[in-house]
Amino acid sequence: MRTIAHSVVTFLLSFSLPSPPLSTSPSLDLSSLGLSSVNIDSSIQAVSVHILAGTPPDPPNGNFDDEKCSPAQVTAIRNGIADARNMAAGAIELLKPKDMKKSNGFFWIFGGSTVDPAVIAKHFSFVLRLGTANEIMSTEDYKNSKTDLIFTCIPPTAPKATSVYANTQNIGRQKSVLNLIRLSPLGLANTESYTVAAARVKALGKIEAGFPNKQVGTVSGPVPPIAFTIVHEVQHAHPLMDDPGRDFLVDEKVLDAQGVLRRAYGFQQIMQLDLPKKQRNPQNFAFFAMLAASNPEIFAPNCFIGPAPLGPAPLIAGRAWVQKPLGPDTCRATVPGACAACKKIIKGIPGDVKLPNFEPDSM
Q1: At what angle do helices 117-127 and 71-95 cross, to 10 degrees?
Q2: Which residue, among 344, 348, 350, 335, has the nearest Cα to 302 in the 3D structure?
Q3: CATH entry, 2-98+115-295, from 3.40.710.10, 3.10.100.10, 3.40.390.10, 3.40.50.300
Q4: How many helices (H) and strands (E) in the chain?
Q5: Which of 31, 87, 188, 217 is in Cβ range 3.0-4.6 Å of 36 for a Cys bridge?
Q6: Beta strands at 48-52 and 134-136: parallel, antiparallel or unpaired
Q7: Where are the domains of the chain?
């Protein structure tokens, strides 16, 4: 996570997802994941969710009240929140089957059979704590409140506003006095649901299909739907966590081909992280939730090659982890197409979404 003036931030892809609002909390039995005690009913959460709305002041005040959202942006954020909750609920359901953690897909996204799905599901459950957001006209009354989370809209005139996707800050970090999830013009540029994006990924067979190129001002780039961004940003949002000291996740780094450490926001980057980092990188959660909707077959129980899921081979080309089969084909998955999909991703899930200039030092 990068330090941005007054904040600890996460710059990430944004899938603006307009889906029908959830009228009730997702009905999920989490006992099989050891999460039966986790409260996922947003109606009784202590956290209040707000959207800063209205007309931005002209001239700007030089504070976060400059980041007021237009009516269209308010609608996009409301839909994105509802969509993110559905996205997280789908991911939790996919994590339930016994031996799912042995699948090749789970290996590439989260590290394989040594990883506890309950830990992963817990982080998705934080997304379910996002309730219905009300509109506010100022952030003044919410300073130093640990139970209020505010969505804001970064104006296009803000420094680097067109080169980032989102930014999260929390009370007490970098002298912050507000809990904010800030969405940029680029982050709000794609207002389709993640289900639409996932359907394209499924139909076209490539992850890029879920990230259409959008142009904001003079900048264009791949933009996911808002739910994808929200799933990621929630992993940085203290008010939604059981214990921020333990549950807060940072954007992990991976070496690129030139030997430079980069934050792992791209699809191939998240698969190149080492095992502990895969479990701590918010973007891994967002991509898993997308693939849970588009290609659940790659996470089918017992869908792996060899007597154990996959084993690391020596580093090749100096950087990327390359995997190899440990034995004969042992795929016993009954999900249609799962065994073929399992074999297909033995060296990684194909396709890529690159996010250049996604993480500026200041804003």
Answers
A1: 160
A2: 335
A3: 3.40.390.10
A4: 10, 13
A5: 31
A6: parallel
A7: 2-98+115-295
Show the tokens assigned to 3: 């330090």
Closest CA to 84 of 147, 26, 6: 26
How many Å apart are CA 104 and CA 216, to the nearest integer? Answer: 37
8 vs 2, 4, 308, CA distance in Å? 6, 6, 39
Question: What's this model's pTM, rounded to 2 decimal places?
Answer: 0.84
pLDDT of residue 174: 76
Helices (H), the chain: 71-95, 104-110, 117-127, 194-204, 226-234, 244-247, 267-272, 275-280, 282-294, 338-344
pLDDT cut 90: percent of the chain above it: 57
Instruction: State whether residue 348 is helix, strand or coil.
Output: coil
Dihedral in degrees, nearest 10, Cα atoms 248, 254, 260, 265? -70
- H or E stretch at 312: strand 311-312
**% of the chain with per-residue pLDDT over 70:** 77
Listing DSSP states for 64-89 in one string gives GGG-PBPHHHHHHHHHHHHHHHHHHH
Pick from 13, 16, 337: which is nearest to 202 by CA? 337
Note whether 310 and 104 are within 8 A (CB).
yes
């639409």: which residue's tokens?
A: 196
Q: Which pLDDT value is given to residue 330? A: 64
CB 353 within 8 A of CB 269: no
Query: ∠ CA(256), CA(218), CA(254), 5° rounding?
Result: 10
Instruction: Specify the residue for token string 């002041």.
Output: 57
Helix, strand or coil for residue 359? coil
Instruction: Name the amino acid, one letter, at 16.
Output: S
Q: How far is 39 from 313, CA to CA, in rounded Å?
A: 41
Structure tokens at 134: 């009300």
Condensed to tens digits (0 to 9), the pLDDT of residues 312-337 reads 443 334 444 444 443 456 677 788 88
